[in-house]
Amino acid sequence: MYRALTWWLISQKLDFRDPATVARNARRPAIEVTTDPASPSVSVDGTDVTGLIRTREVSNAVSAVASVPEVRAHLVARQQAILASACAAGEGIVAEGRDIGTVVAPQAVVKVFLTASEDARAERRSADLADPGATPSVTRDEQKRRDTADAAQSAMASDAIKVDSTVLSLQQVVGLVVQVAGERGFPLAGHPAWTG
Asked: 96-196, superfamily in CATH?
């Protein structure tokens, strides 16, 4: 959601570095996030921005937007409403973000604090980007700046399980998360969202 708002501000040629401009416009775009794991997507005013919000331009701007209190209040409330709706329907939900376990859903029973070394994160992110300028070295520097800017929202919840994915494959990480969920009373093994 923070990335979607950032993308919208950039697309509207609004100054995302100016907190007053960001605060004034935080509620203008209609941001929709699907909760279906089979077809995840993010849209802004009806435009699918799922891929567009993962660009370097958005990544390098999102911290400035996310630090504005009016943005945080608006989007945290939206995220909490989505989580409450899924839980009320008896479906449960998996959510990810820097402050999900500490601010958005501190009452969540299963919390995983996923981490990896700076080098591993940079290698993975660089490989994901279709940008020749996004070398692992450049990506590592950009990540470091964002980590510093987002440090206040990046604390590990006291009841979270830490998973260091530095030397793990995606499949191994998913396996560990499923195991942790099962140990906390939420067996996910065999759940349709985790198969295939």
From this structure: P-loop containing nucleotide triphosphate hydrolases (3.40.50.300)
